[in-house]
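Thread: sanity check for a docking pose with zinc ion

Original post by kr_44:
Hi all, I'm comparing my docking run against an independent structure prediction. Below are the sequence and the ligand SMILES. Could someone generate the full complex and paste the structure tokens? I mainly care about where the ligand ends up relative to the chain.
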Amino acid sequence: MARTSRNMLTILGCGTSTGVPIPTCPCKVCRSRNPKNKRLRASAWLQAEGRSLLIDTGTDLRQQALRAGIPRIDAILYTHPHSDHTHGIDEIRAFNFTQQSAIPAFGNAWTCQELPARFPYIFKPGPVEGGGIPLIELKELDPNAERLEIAGLEVVPLPLQHGSKESVGYRFESVAYVTDCSYIPELSLDRMRGVTTLVLDCIRPRPHRTHLALDQALEFISRVRPRKTYLTHLGHEFDYAEWGPGRKHPLPRGVQLAYDGLRIPI
Ligand SMILES: [Zn+2]
Ligand SMILES: [Zn+2]
Ligand SMILES: [Zn+2]
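Reply from moderator J.T.:
Ran it for you. Here is the predicted complex with zinc ion included:
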């Protein structure tokens, strides 16, 4: 596939499910004025070969789409159906209006069972009165498939463990986006070989039941050995000014916290 300089992964949000700041929280990070400590719910936007792929329809999608200037969406890739990754789904209507068509969305078996149960008005609609519903063609993907063709782009699915459930990461060329996981199976580590940039779940320094904590994230990074890693799905334990190579809480070279609006050339 020919590369163009416009291929880009944009981090639309790098926050955990509450976002940061957390309403009511008086902690230093939640009160911080550093814009890099303000984290919308985790989501990303892939622009490649003139195509536009949205990863998840997070709670903050409207704000993210406006901020990033997303002009159209050719397909949606779901990582999994948790609320923070899906509850912006109604914002897809705006794209239906301008594109005049339904938008294909891809997810694993869990996502394809859960979304119609969460949003029956979208996936099992009766008569609609009022503002309309998002038009989405939900299709199940096989996370074990070696590669998928999504809107004409070759995407490698990365099966992940997320607590007792399964989520999916995605590799596109030299970049892998791996949010919401507590374990990365060998198959996916193999598929991540050679990536130069990794975006990786790291919710907080302390262990967590369904997410990678810092030590676990660093362990996986040392196995994948990307040139650059951006930690995402960050909670309010991480002060952007204090965590990073050479900072108060040092991170290994090449590892840093993501921030909303981060643009990663592919
Ligand atoms: Zn999440
Ligand atoms: Zn806080
Ligand atoms: Zn999740």
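The CA atoms of residues 197 and 228 lie 5 Å apart. Hope that helps with the comparison, let us know if your pose agrees.
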